[in-house]
Design goal:
- This protein is mostly helical.
- The protein has a domain at 15-73.
- It contains three helices and no strands.
- It has helices spanning 7-21, 26-50, 53-73.
- Helix 1 (7-21) packs antiparallel against helix 2 (26-50).
- It is elongated, with a radius of gyration of 17 Å.
């Protein structure tokens, strides 16, 4: 089965996701991580019949990082905890 065409939507979704993830707007970043997950699936779908095992391993690792990023863009259930004086304005998670 010839799946070479899948490379192009995988490529386009990867670029679009990178653009969205770089946004300062949380909802755009959130959409970007979902699109990155789609690109991971597309790359794996192309890589399996091509026997590109390193690409599959890379996409699995990137999917884990994308899920982590997705979870970090979700609103916090604990509410806004007060920051200590001199602390970084980030949420403190790495």
């Amino acid at each position: 089965m010839q799946l070479d065409w899948i490379q192009w939507p995988a490529f386009a979704s990867s670029v679009a996701a990178a653009y969205l993830v770089a946004s300062n707007i949380r909802t755009r970043r959130n959409k970007g991580f979902w699109i990155f997950l789609l690109s991971n699936v597309l790359w794996v779908a192309w890589a399996i019949p091509s026997r590109a095992w390193a690409l599959i391993a890379l996409q699995v690792c990137l999917a884990v990082l994308n899920i982590r990023g997705l979870l970090k863009t979700e609103p916090q259930a604990t509410g806004g905890a007060a920051q200590s004086a001199g602390s970084c304005p980030s949420d403190g998670r790495n």
